[in-house]
Amino acid sequence: MTTAKDIMHEGAQWIPKTETLLHAAQRMRRLHVGALPVSDETERLCGIITDRDIVVKCVAEGHDPSQCTAADIVEGTPRWIDAGASVEDVVKEMGTHHIRRLPVIENKKLVGMISEADVARSLPEDKVHAFAAQVYAGPPQT
């Protein structure tokens, strides 16, 4: 059985909810990623921010990214998947919640991230279209 850990990108990093959006954007640039999981003070997942979130919810609203924090823009219930979950479980989680990125947790620690492209690469060709239709059917999520 192929698991979430098998298809994830390793090396994902938390950003504390107290971190400024300027530093978050700089970390995204340095890591060549478009999203970062956000942790609370106990390193528990409390959300995900994307580069688009920073632009739309901060910059476009006229706020200063050096003054706004990740906590100012995270919203909703964060979704995640256990490292040992099957690819089918990953597909179900991402499709049901219309999300494009999914943190992977093992022993209560962040071990990676899965994007929709990671899932698509792991699915048989005849299932990729159905997966994409499910993820993109709902409102845009991170």
UniProtKB/TrEMBL annotation:
It comes from the Bacteria. PROSITE patterns: CBS. SMART domains: CBS. Keywords: CBS domain. The gene is hrp1. PANTHER family: CBS DOMAIN-CONTAINING PROTEIN, CBS DOMAIN-CONTAINING PROTEIN CBSX3, MITOCHONDRIAL. InterPro entries: CBS_dom, CBS_dom_sf, Diverse_CBS-Domain. It holds the Pfam family CBS. This is Hypoxic response protein Hrp1.
